[in-house]
Specification:
- It contains 11 helices and 13 strands.
- By secondary structure, it is of the alpha/beta class.
- Helix 9 links the parallel strand 9 and strand 10.
- The structure holds ligand G3I.
- The site of ligand G3I has 8 residues, from loops.
């Protein structure tokens, strides 16, 4: 086991919370980029790719959006959506390699329907998704930016109704000449229940065939605490399968169509998992046996990831 190497283990980074709506537009039309700028000042010197996350999602919205003084109409909320997406893409420009423009638009039940618990869906309807991509597209074109625009979701990592819905969305945006460059597969998995390598790769290639890149955007594999030899061994195989699927997913030309793997919270100490799924955790590649602010130690999954990346 060796220590975490900040400059060489990662080429790519995503802010978990600082670019979200609640943080960047705390009051209507008043943008606060201070948290995001602090994040960028730390990561920009060492990271090549910054996946900016996210513009439009149902969660972590400002209270003025979810509890408006005057009820929203389609027109007033559409203006809010457009203004937010356009401003953020314009402000950060090419500091972002990519933006997750819309996050998690589709429901688990009924799978693949537009998620009606989102205020965007409730007030605007499904058209809020192309609207957000149009705002981002306009900002890219107006600013002559090269930032890539992504749709990001969970439950689309293997074939199924949600994956089909996301593929339909990609085709619809392309047919309307609205920019979409990629799809993010969150990949929040449960040990022993992750889709097989071949199922993930085939699903990635179905998206790639539509003319988009794919990225594994939020990979973690949670297990019931404490880990056992059996669950940790399975976890290594689960991480391997996802990373190997990405490495193997190709375009028709033979070049890579899966262009990155991002883990969500890289050390268990700060992982979102234990507070959301009580009794579960151990989902990331590093731990801190001594607690917060102590030395990071690589777990067995680190070697599984490395093996998939290098083919070793
Ligand atoms: O900012 C408050 C702080 O003031 C307060 O003291 C503290 C007390 O709990 O809460 C803080 O807010 C927390 C926020 O993260 C910022 O740290 C929320 O409680 C907490 O629920 C929130 O969790 C985030 C979660 O999204 C919200 O759904 C996680 O950190 C973040 O990792 C997680 O990330 C999402 C992706 O954006 C989308 N895909 C799923 C993924 C995991 O849920």
């Amino acid at each position: 086991m060796t220590e975490f190497n900040n400059t060489h283990d990662f080429e790519e980074v995503t802010p978990a919370n600082t670019m979200k709506f609640f943080a960047t537009e705390p009051e209507q039309g008043v943008f606060d980029y201070s948290g995001a700028e602090t994040f960028l000042s730390i990561v920009t010197p060492t990271k090549k790719y910054i996946r900016c996350h996210n513009l439009i999602w149902k969660s972590q919205l400002s209270s003025w959006v979810t509890s408006p003084a005057v009820p929203w109409t389609n027109a007033t909320l559409s203006a809010v959506l457009y203004n937010h997406a356009y401003n953020l893409v314009s402000h950060f420009g090419d500091a972002c390699y990519s933006w997750d423009v819309v996050n998690e638009a589709f429901a688990d039940s009924p799978a693949g329907a537009y998620d009606n618990s989102s205020i965007w869906e409730q007030i605007i309807g499904p058209e809020y998704v192309p609207m957000a991509f149009q705002a981002a597209t306009d900002a890219v074109r107006d600013g002559n930016l090269s930032v890539k625009l992504y749709y990001n979701d969970y439950g689309i990592e293997s074939a199924g109704a949600k994956s089909t819905a996301a593929q339909t969305l990609v085709s619809q945006l392309k047919a309307r000449d609205i920019q979409i460059d990629g799809v993010g597969f969150e990949s929040h998995f449960i040990v022993g229940e992750t889709p097989s390598q071949s199922a993930q790769q085939a699903n990635m290639e179905a998206f790639i065939a539509l003319g988009v890149d794919v990225v594994v955007t939020e990979l973690d594999v949670r297990l019931s605490l404490p880990p056992t030899v059996a669950t940790e061994t399975q976890q290594v195989a689960d991480f391997y399968n996802t990373v190997a699927a990405c490495v193997g997913a190709k375009k028709g030309t033979g070049s890579h169509g899966c262009v990155g793997v991002v883990v969500w919270d890289f050390v268990d100490t700060y992982s979102w998992i234990p507070t959301t799924f009580v009794g579960q955790g151990y989902g990331t590649p590093w731990l801190q046996p001594g607690g917060a602010n102590t030395t990071l130690v690589k777990k067995a999954v680190y070697d599984g990831i490395l093996e998939a990346l290098t083919g070793a």
